[in-house]
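Quality-control log, excerpt.
Job 1 of 2 completed; input and output follow.
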Amino acid sequence: MSTADQQPKSVRWARWSAVLIVSVIGLAAFVLSFAALRDLAVMAHTPTHLAWLFPVIVDGTIIQATIAVLALADSDERTFFTRVLIAGATVSIGGNIAHALVSGHGALAAILAVIAPAALLLDTHGLAVLLRTRNTLPTEPATSAVVAEPVEPFVPEPVPAPMSTSSPIPPAPVRPTTPPPVRVVQPFQPPRPVPVAVSTGGN
C-alpha cells in the first residue's frame, strides 16, 4: 500500500485543494505577467507574431528553475539553478515594472506590476513543494502487523579469575638441627699411695 493510500481522506482532500488553488493563482499570475512582457517586447519593436516568445522565455525559466531547485535539493547542481531562478525572477519583475513606467501609468502601476511575477514565483515554488511532499509525509505504523518477540533475560557470563603469570617459589628445605655434644666432667680423684718396700739390715 502506498503512502498516499494510507493517509486520511481529509489530508488528501486538503492537499489537492491547495494544489488546485495554487495552480489557479499561478496561472492567473502567469497570464498577467505574460501580457505585460509581451507588450514590452512589442514596444521594443519586436515583431508582433514573435513577441509572445519573450514572456515564455522569461516566465518559463522561472518555472523550470523552481522545479529544478526542489528536485536537486541534495545535489551540488542546485546552486546553478538557484542563480537561474534569481536571474529569471529579476528579469520578470523588472520587465513588468518597466512596462508600467513606459506605458505612462505612474509609480502606483509599477508597484502593482510586481505582484504578478512575484505571485508566479511563489505559487510555482509552493506547487512544487506540495507535489514533492505528497509521498514523504510520515504515517502511523500498522500496529496489528507488529508481533512482539520475547526478550530473553540477560545473564552475564562468569568472568574467570586472572591467572598468575609468575611461577610459585618453592619453600626452602628445613635442615634438622642436632644439639651440641655434652661434655661430661669427671670428678677429681687424688692419686693413690704406692707402697714402697723398706729393706732391713741383716744377712
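Job 2 of 2 completed; input and output follow.
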Amino acid sequence: MPVGMTDSQMKILYSGTESATWLDGPAEVLRKQVGRLADSPIGAVLHGAPVGHPLHPALVAVPIGAWTAAGVFDALRQPETARRLIGLGLLATPPTVLAGWVDWVHTDTVQRRVGLIHAAVNGAGAALMALSYRQRRRSSGPGAVTRSAAGAVTRSAAGAVTLSAAGTILIGLGGLLGGHLAYSLGANVRPPEVPNAPVYDPVLADSPGDTA
C-alpha cells in the first residue's frame, strides 16, 4: 500500500477508475486509431511477439528506475548525475509509451478505462520530468542544485527539483494503476497452460467420495 493511503482510499481510487464510463466514447475512438499500429509488424514487436509476452512491463523499469535514482542524486547534491538520469528516462519514454498503447488495444472495456487514466497520469508525470530537465539545462549551474554565494539553493534549481519530485509522485501513482490493471484486472495476462493436466469436472469435484 502506498505511504499515506488507507484501504478505503485505495478502493475509491480503483473503483473510481473502473467505473469511469465517460471514457468509453474517447476510448473507442483511440482504440481504432491505435489499432492501426497494433496490427502492424512494429505493433507486434511492441506487444512482445518475439519474446512471447508484452514488453511494456519490462520497458517501464528504465524510466521509473532512472527518475527514482535522479531523486536520490538530487538529495546527495549531485545535480549533473540527476540531470543525466532524467534525460535517460526521457529517452526511454517513447518506446515504453508506444508499447503500453499497443497493449491497451488488447483490453476490455473496464481495463481500457483504467488504462486511459494510467496513461494520463504517467503522461503528466513525464511532462513534469521534461520541464525539469529543460530547466536544469537552462540553469546557470551544471544541474538542478546550484548555490549562491551565501550557500543557499537558487530558486531556479529548487524549482527544477520540485518539478522532478512531483513528476516522480505522479509516475508512482500511474504505476499503482498499472499494477492494478495487470494484477487485479488481468490485462494482457493469460492463465498458464499445464500440459496433460486433468480437466476440471464440477460434478466430480462435488462428489462425496472425493476426499483428496
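Post-run check on job 2. The mean pLDDT is 85.
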